[in-house]
Amino acid sequence: MAYKFIDNYREKGARKKLVELLRNRGIGDEAVLKAIGKVPRHFFFDETFWNQAYKDIAFPIGDGQTISQPYTVAYQSELLHIRKGDKVLEIGTGSGYQTCILLELGAKVVTIERQENIFNRTIQVLPGMGYKPKFFCGDGSKGIAEEAPYDKIIVTAGAPFVPEILLKQLKVGGILVIPVGDAQAQKMVTVIRVSETDFEKIVLDTFRFVPLVGDQAW
Asked: In the UniProt entry, which residues are flagged as the active site (predicted)?
């Protein structure tokens, strides 16, 4: 399947407005805002819906999944405190938009998607845009032990609890960002591995994600 990528003045102007909206909503990390301003979000939409691409909303991408709201993407990205060269595990590739933001921040991204249809589409789209993470298809709730340890782990679906198996795959000093709650709403949770055996947990704002499905989730 061939993908046509057009990034014209109108879309660049829309991204600039989106960046200002996110700044006004409290996103203060300039590196994250710069990444949001660079990644062409309309490439993840059918051309029919390009007029929706730079609104601060989630949008369906098929198979019961969505491309996350830009504010949510920026919020999670900010919590990760990405440094250039960080090895990041992304659980829930989805459309690949969050993946691209992480790559723009300088991370080395390992990303896993459970839904085969979405996975097969995304592994074509991202390289066509010049983004080349390491792709996996499978149960992300178990992480990817063979690629561990990770500096950062981001979960882009709502989990019923923090899977212990993911904590084991974090480096000491590493950060896990995961939404935890029930089917209606989740609290964003940051977990920092402060030593081999100790973790610091911070519970933050309320969001609503599609469910994380897998052996260590729903």
From this structure: 68
